[in-house]
Every structure is written in C-alpha cells, then in structure tokens.
Design brief:
115 residues; rod-shaped; single chain
C-alpha cells in the first residue's frame, strides 16, 4: 500500500506514519493552513512595533510631553497597546511594552517609560 503526499501528490517513501513527501511540502501545507491567522498576528505585531518605535523616538529621556498630531503624523495607532495601568488616583496609562502614554487635556500626551 503506497501513500501519496496531500500537498503535491507524489508517492511517500519512508516511515509508515509519514504524511508528506518532503519538508517543503509539509511547510507549504502548514503555511496554507495557518496563513489567515498568521497574517492577522503579523499585522498586529508590526503595528505594535511601529507604535513602540514612535514612543521611543518621542521619549528618549524616559519622560516627556507631545501632541496627538505629532504621534498621528508618525503613524501611531491609538487602538493598539499591550497593557493598561490605572493608578490609585484613577489615572489611566496605556503601554506598548515598557513605553507608555497618558492622555492629557487639549490633545497633549505625557510619554513615560516603565522601569
């Protein structure tokens, strides 16, 4: 009894429990299977990295202030962050890893770095 590769249709030679004829076919099948999920995760991670780089660029001294317009012009996405920190006083900081921002009055933001 010979088995055929579900990816390319070639004959499978080797172990009885082998599913694909080669590593290339196995990788191609798994990439097809996971492509939608991976694209979503990849896009979100790319935007998180972009947000992180922007916060680092605007906040080299660990604490500063900037405007919303400057962040938006640099490509910052306010919908993506990794965590929220609420102080005892109720102030809400949004963090992208260790870089954070605090919305202030009048489209200003305080940028901070968590130590």
């Amino acid at each position: 009894m010979s088995k055929t590769c579900p990816e390319c249709g070639d004959k499978i030679i080797g172990r009885a429990d082998k599913k694909y004829c080669s590593d290339a076919c196995r990788n191609a099948a798994n990439n097809k299977l996971n492509s939608d999920q991976r694209n979503l995760v990849r896009n979100i991670n790319n935007q998180l990295r972009r947000n992180y780089r922007i916060l680092q660029e605007f906040n080299p001294e660990d604490k500063t202030k900037t405007t919303k317009d400057k962040l938006v012009m640099a490509g910052f996405d306010f919908n993506l962050f990794t965590s929220i920190y609420t102080t005892k006083a109720g102030t809400v900081y949004y963090f992208v890893y260790d870089q954070g921002y605090l919305p202030l009055e009048g489209d200003y933001f305080a940028l901070v770095k968590r130590k």
